[in-house]
Design a protein that fits this description.
Helix content: under 10%
Shape: rod-shaped
Number of strands: 37
Largest sheet: 8 strands, antiparallel
Number of helices: 5
């Protein structure tokens, strides 16, 4: 606080007080009498009053655009840096089987017992057996283009129709009945049409010459075992067999007995496997179940920490914060769980610092918020990933923090649509509440002055500014000072090398610390070391260094805009008094 011309005005009154206001013009005293006088005795003091209780919001100023913020509700300081969303896409290419060519089965069936008398009867039924050893056919589904992202397979899904046509072309048998025919399918077939033994049953079905009886079996997919899939060669080979068993019957009344004496039919079984939705000769795999490892890119832009306020922008600053938090949001639309490795590298003019986070998993088909921090996050909806060393990144405020995130599919089975593009979106936010550890050191510089007009005509070589400091901040405060000269043309006030300024806290026995949440007397000692230098003094630069202290519990080492620092009972003292030139 500056009392403009208070000191000079006081000195101007001294001649009146000493009775030299009237001079006899008959005498010229200026040549014979030295009007330089000593005022003040051992200590000449002028009261300076007190400052207001200065809130931290005035000392630790935060400007719009700074990354340091003040919570509008609590008033607590915190650092906040928000990123921009990063988008990537995940895809496992589709593959297909070549549609197999399956040889038809043709077998003569002879009906028995047969005799001429029976043939002439109108109500005799003749039967013939369908034997699996005679009615079976093999097929193969092969693919040589399984994508490299597929590491193992347990199932493939496709829109397949397995079709069996039963047909005969003997016109002398006008009609036949499929009494109970079982169609045996391979066990790897997945279909709602089969029973527990993978059989499709045909009962009491009528067939006539040249008109096939068709059985369409909808197949949802195929179960795959390790012998079918070769991940090294990216090939899939499925070998299958279809066989029939049962009986066929005809009635004597449906046989042309005039032309036949021993009735039989040539029964054909035509088996086909095809894609129900495509006609290009391939069976397209729609989705696959297994272990897949598509490329998952989690991009986090470098974190830059520009726009720092003055109290965090010095070489001496050590930001020993208790709980810096890096929030990473992940919107994973894929069915693949991602395992994430993350490491951080902070770059500053003091060097580099690296911190490695433990692995964490991003769930499939979900939006998840993660918080990488030493302690619990302030957002309780976030999944906490404990990173005890994270504060090391910002001990010395870095210019940039690079975040390297490597994501890979979890080593577990999943079902994924092939040929479909899934989105993977990430973003980050860095939030550092100013909850400090014991190694904290923040530095703030301010200046007091414009005194030169007041003191340039006063003779003294030493001065003291005394007062009482009220530190209502939960941090220890150390003050230092340097003498400043009159501002130059560029506005800067140079440090005066011939004047020393030292801040002393007498009650602290030499440590000169104004402890957290305490009141202490202080003395600023100003001394001339080069004769005449004090006349150049225009003010002092005050360096306020705040540090963490174990005397305050860790949870209370939070700086808040409403905390105050105040000086009261301020006095300017000149030891030994001052010389006043009245000549």
């Amino acid at each position: 606080m500056k009392k403009k011309n208070l000191f000079i005005a006081f000195l101007a009154c001294l001649p009146l007080a000493l009775g030299v206001s009237c001079v006899d013009d008959a005498y010229d005293l200026s040549e014979d009498i030295d009007f330089t006088i000593q005022v003040g005795g051992s200590d000449f003091a002028i009261p300076g009053g007190a400052t207001e209780a200065i809130p931290l919001s005035k000392l630790l100023k935060v400007n719009e655009g700074d990354i340091v913020k003040i919570d509008p509700v609590s008033g607590d300081y915190y650092l906040l840096k928000e990123g921009n969303p990063a988008y990537s896409f995940v895809e496992v290419p589709a593959f297909s089987f070549a549609q197999p060519v399956i040889d038809p089965i043709v077998k003569d069936l002879g009906f028995s017992p047969v005799s001429p008398a029976m043939l002439k009867s109108s109500d005799i039924t003749f039967s013939a057996d369908i034997r699996p050893a005679e009615f079976n056919t093999d097929f193969a589904l092969n693919s040589v283009s399984v994508p490299a992202e597929v590491k193992s397979l347990s199932r493939v899904n496709a829109n397949i129709v397995l079709q069996v046509k039963l047909l005969y072309n003997t016109p002398l048998v006008r009609k036949a009945t499929l009494d109970d025919v079982a169609i045996y399918l391979p066990s790897f077939i997945i279909s709602k049409s089969v029973d527990a033994n993978h059989i499709v049953h045909v009962s009491n079905a009528t067939i006539t010459p040249g008109v096939p009886y068709t059985v369409d079996i909808e197949v949802e997919g195929l179960n795959i075992n390790s012998e079918m899939f070769n991940a090294a060669t990216h090939t899939l080979s499925v070998q299958g067999n279809v066989s029939l068993q049962g009986s066929v019957s005809v009635k004597s009344s449906d046989i042309d007995v005039s032309a036949i004496s021993s009735p039989s039919i040539a029964l054909s079984a035509i088996v086909s496997v095809k894609d129900a939705s495509a006609s290009d000769g391939n069976i397209h795999i729609v989705s696959a179940t297994g272990k897949v490892a598509p490329d998952i890119n989690v991009n986090v832009d470098p974190i830059t920490l520009g726009g720092l306020p003055d109290f965090l922008d010095g070489d001496d600053v050590v930001l020993d914060v208790a709980n810096p938090m890096v929030y990473i949001s992940a919107d994973n639309s894929t069915p693949v769980k991602a395992v994430v490795n993350a490491d951080f590298t902070a770059f500053s003019r003091f060097g580099t610092v690296s911190v490695v986070a433990p692995k964490f998993e991003i769930p499939a088909m979900a939006s998840t918020l993660f918080c990488l921090s030493p302690l619990a996050p302030d957002d309780q909806s976030a999944v906490h990933v404990s990173v005890p060393d994270l504060p090391r990144l910002v001990d010395k405020i870095p210019d940039q923090i690079n975040v390297n995130v490597a994501a890979a599919a979890a080593d577990e089975e999943t079902t994924i649509r092939l040929g479909s593009s899934y989105s993977f979106t990430t973003n980050y936010k860095v939030k550092v509440p100013f909850l400090f550890g014991e190694n904290l050191k923040i530095v703030y510089t301010d200046t007091l002055g414009e005194w030169n007009e007041d003191i340039k005509d006063v003779e003294f070589t030493r001065a003291k500014i005394t007062g009482t400091a009220h530190n209502n901040i939960p941090l220890d405060v150390t003050l230092s000072a340097k003498g400043l000269g009159v501002a130059q043309s560029n506005g800067e006030r140079p440090i005066i090398n011939g004047v020393t300024a030292r801040v002393v806290v007498p009650a602290q026995n030499g440590d000169d610390v104004i402890h957290a949440l305490t009141t202490a007397d202080i003395v600023v000692e100003i001394e001339e070391t080069v004769p005449g230098s004090v006349k150049l003094l225009d003010g002092v630069a005050i360096y306020i260094s705040a540090t963490g202290t174990p005397s305050v519990p860790a949870e209370s080492r939070v700086i808040n805009k409403n905390q105050t620092f105040q000086l009261t009972n301020i006095k300017l003292k000149i030891p030994g008094g001052v010389k006043v030139d009245l000549n």
